[in-house]
Amino acid sequence: MRRGRRNRKTRYRKPRFLNRKRPKGWLPPSLMSRINNIKSWVDRLAKCVPLSAISMELVRFDMQKMANPEIQETEYQKGTLFGYEAREYLLAKFNRTCVYCGTKDATFNLDHFHPKSRGGSDKVSNLVLSCVECNQKKGAQLPADFLSDKPKLLAMIEKQRKQPLADAAAVNATRWKLKEVLESTGLPVEIGSGGLTKFNRKHLGISKSHWTDAACVGKSTPDTLNIQNYQPLLIKAMGCGSRKMQKCDQYGFPKGAPKLRQKSFFGFQTGDIVKAVVTKGKKIGTYLGRIAVRKTGSFNIKTKTETVQGISHKYCRPIHKCDGYAYQFGEPVQQKVANFFHKDSPVLTNPVQLNFFDVSEMQTDVQPKAKKKPSPLSPGFDGEQLSLF
Questions:
Q1: Which of the listed ranges 5-14, 195-204, 272-281 does the model predict with the highest average pLDDT?
Q2: pLDDT tens-digit series, residues 275-286
Q3: Could you tell me the domains of the chain?
């Protein structure tokens, strides 16, 4: 299989030997893909808007402290930033959602999944996000007793809480390489810390999200930033298919028929975003989403809520050709105040002056969804809002 892959016309890879040496600054392809995606979008934006500088949050997660809070001295643990990384990591890991009841609009506690009174530890793998009501209801019960009537939920929580700190490790490994790649664009790169980003965001009264954090990175953040009701465009790298010409089983032997060399059928390719208006048959309706093509002309469309199979190519109208990315409009940002800084207001020069660890900090920033008219910032075809996945 390996010899055949080298000799095929798809690509050429030199044979590997034990004396090969990795160049300086080498990163695995999975991590370089993240960096190259950022570089690609910086280049795209530079063609559309006059970029003058780049602000980058140079974050380093303390992996040992997150995994075992008792690894260092007591004085260091009780410092100003004690618990900050663990709390922020758990909020992101569990998507600001109570693991027991699924609520998002609540004040959260860090709950010991296995109670300390029953032998549980303070390791981050034993901590979960819980609302106050569920935390009090659970008390010192064992998870198997508290979730005895919900075995599937218990298995899901067990799997999620034991997941490794993959995202934190990826950030630690790529941060300096990303800075080097951004500097190669010729634009000045400003470095900011995670604490400064949070300080700026809290002062501007902006809700927590990835793109609002990006707007608050570094000392160049303006004193006033009114982004109320702005709607972000969420972009996700999806790729343009696999290089594999033949699927293999777990032992490496060929399985099924070889993949066709032809990728486009009836003018469509897997990954295109289309709008299908079906007027006849059992699937009458309008569908908007990414398609998976077939040679027969019967396509699958993945909408925001479901995957619809067996849609004829005759009903499909292209909206966006496949470029390796998926697009989606996010929820408008919630901003508590438009202009926080005033001439007469005191300016906090040290982020430590903020109380980062009060009870309200563990409260989700997600507001109850209200019915609203389609925003003029995100028009789709025929006036509808374009929300794909």
A1: 272-281
A2: 999 998 888 999
A3: 63-161 (1.10.30), 240-323 (2.30.30)
